[in-house]
Each structure stands twice: as structure tokens, then as C-alpha cells.
UniProtKB/TrEMBL annotation:
Gene Ontology biological process terms, A to Z: Golgi organization; Golgi to plasma membrane protein transport; Golgi vesicle budding; retrograde vesicle-mediated transport, Golgi to endoplasmic reticulum
Keywords: Golgi apparatus, Lipid-binding, Membrane
Compositionally biased tracts (Basic and acidic residues): 13-44
InterPro entries: GPP34-like, GPP34-like_sf
Native source organism of the sequence: Phaedon cochleariae (Mustard beetle)
Protein name: Golgi phosphoprotein 3
């Protein structure tokens, strides 16, 4: 997939202190949680995971389901899960050693297995813990999506991810649950009820590439960087940019293309970065 693909034509879119966790990791997670709470300006119940944010961007507000033509969001959500596990200190890439191997050649290894408290993340963590020898990020995206030719790996598939995430958002008061009748079947849908949360999410993304643009990915908030990239990989980033005027839209997409064209191998070798994040990026632009 071409990294800049998806911005050719503008579309009309309406608009944890547990044993085994060292203090540094605890502090990092607490800091991450605090930053999210400050960003959201609301209680913990409205804080969203990367997976929930990407799904929320992709859901049609009134209809309550994602586009039937979107075949990217499934793998995109699995990428979100791996990045969440990386940012929360549960997984990392194996060390480089004497031979410098590419991001996609390095294996994803367990750092520690303390449960996070999120069902999907803990299920993925359990699969990673049980796998020996370790597998690459690219392989894990395929396994968790069920897109593998190896029947022995199908047990790693995370099923009903969109529906489970939507239920999380219902519990957080962002969505509601309805039944819609289509021609030959009934479908459970999840229309938007909390416009403020989605509006805040969209504004946060717009601000990151416009008024708060830092022109240096290493200075960007890692979660925001991941959100922008995986929203693009899931073909839902356009929904955040659709409300912009033409000039801002052009500037926003130009800056996103700049991020997509980065040398991920070089970025992963810089200090204080997340190698899992860059490996997931590389897997989607392979």
C-alpha cells in the first residue's frame, strides 16, 4: 500500500501498582492516563483506547455502523491493539544485537504479562505469552485478524472486535444500541449519542496537524501519532478532515503525507521512541 494513498480525492463525508511492574513503567502508564484525562477534560469513563477512537471515527453517526466498503479497519484495529500493548509497556521488539535487522524482521516479545484490565488487550497479551518462538509484528496483525493461511494460528484470531469495542463505547455513554432491519437480515447498530466526545476527538486530530503541528514526529505525542497513522491505515482519517475548509484540508493532508513518508527504520533508532509503534507503521506500508 502506498503510504500517501487515501488523499487523492476529497470525499464528501457528513459530518494499573501490580507485582512485576517496575516503577518507571508504572509512572509512564500513570502519566499516559493523566495526559488522556487532561486532554479529554472529562472523567475516566470518557477516556478512549486507540481502538475505540479509530472505530468511533469510522462509525456513521446516525446509522451506527462502519462503511460496508471499508476492508481496512479490521487489520487497523489489530495494529491499534499492538501499539496499545507497546505504549503500556507489555511488549517490545527483540534487541538488535550485532546484526541490524529491519523492524519487520525483529520479533515482538513479551516484556511483562500483568493484565491491563481491557478484555481485548488482555486476550491479545495472553496469545503473545503463549507463543514460542516469538513472531513478528506483521505476523501478529495477520493472526489477530484471522488473515493467515496457517490453520494452527487461527486460534489467535480476536473475534467480533468491532462489536466488542462498540459495546465498550455504549458502556462509556458514547454510543447506544439499536436493531436495524435490512432487506434480508437484522443487524445490531450503535448510533452516536455523545456528540461532544466525537467532536472532541475530531478536533484533537485536526489540532495536531494544524495549530499544534510541531514538524517533528519525535516531539509529537505517541498516542496522537499512532492515532493519525492507524486512522489513515483504517481508511477513516478522512472523516476527521472532512469538516475543514479547503485550505486547512490541503494543509492537514500535506502534513499527514509527510508523516507517512518518514523513514520508519531511522525513527525507530532514535532515543526515547517506541519501536513497536514504528514496526506497526512499517507493517502497514510494506
Amino acid at each position: 500500500m502506498n503510504r500517501s494513498e487515501g488523499f487523492v480525492k476529497r470525499r464528501n463525508v457528513t459530518r494499573e501498582n501490580s507485582e512485576g511492574v517496575n516503577k518507571e513503567e508504572q509512572n509512564n502508564e500513570k502519566r499516559s492516563n493523566h495526559e488522556e484525562e487532561v486532554d479529554d477534560g472529562d472523567s475516566k469513563e470518557t477516556r478512549l483506547t486507540l481502538m475505540e477512537e479509530v472505530l468511533l471515527l469510522g462509525l456513521k453517526d446516525k446509522e451506527g455502523y462502519t462503511s460496508f466498503w471499508n476492508d481496512c479497519i479490521s487489520s487497523g484495529l489489530r495494529g491499534c491493539i499492538l501499539i496499545e500493548l507497546g505504549l503500556r509497556g507489555r511488549v517490545e521488539l527483540e534487541k538488535l544485537g550485532m546484526r541490524r535487522r529491519s523492524l519487520l524482521a525483529r520479533k515482538l516479545v513479551l516484556k511483562h504479562d500483568t493484565p491491563i484490565g481491557d478484555v481485548l488487550l488482555d486476550e491479545a497479551l495472553k496469545h503473545l505469552k503463549e507463543t514460542d518462538p516469538p513472531e513478528s509484528v506483521q505476523s501478529w496483525i495477520e493472526y489477530l485478524s484471522g488473515e493467515t493461511w496457517n490453520p494452527l494460528k487461527l486460534r489467535y484470531q480476536l473475534k467480533n472486535v468491532r462489536e466488542r469495542l462498540a459495546k465498550n463505547l455504549v458502556e462509556k455513554g458514547v454510543l447506544t444500541t439499536e436493531k436495524q432491519n435490512f432487506l434480508f437480515f437484522d443487524m445490531t447498530t450503535h448510533p452516536l449519542t455523545d456528540n461532544i466526545t466525537k467532536s472532541r476527538l475530531i478536533k484533537k486530530i485536526q489540532d495536531a496537524v494544524l495549530v499544534k503541528w510541531v514538524n517533528n514526529p519525535q516531539q509529537m505525542d505517541k498516542r496522537m501519532l499512532a492515532l493519525i497513522f492507524l486512522a489513515h491505515a483504517s481508511d477513516v482519517l478522512e472523516n476527521a478532515f472532512a469538516p475543514l475548509n479547503d485550505d486547512d484540508y490541503e494543509l492537514a493532508t500535506k502534513r499527514v503525507r509527510k508523516l507517512l513518508d518518514l523513514n520508519f527504520e531511522e525513527e525507530a533508532n532514535k532515543p526515547n521512541t517506541s519501536d513497536v509503534l514504528w514496526a506497526v507503521f512499517a507493517a502497514f506500508t510494506k
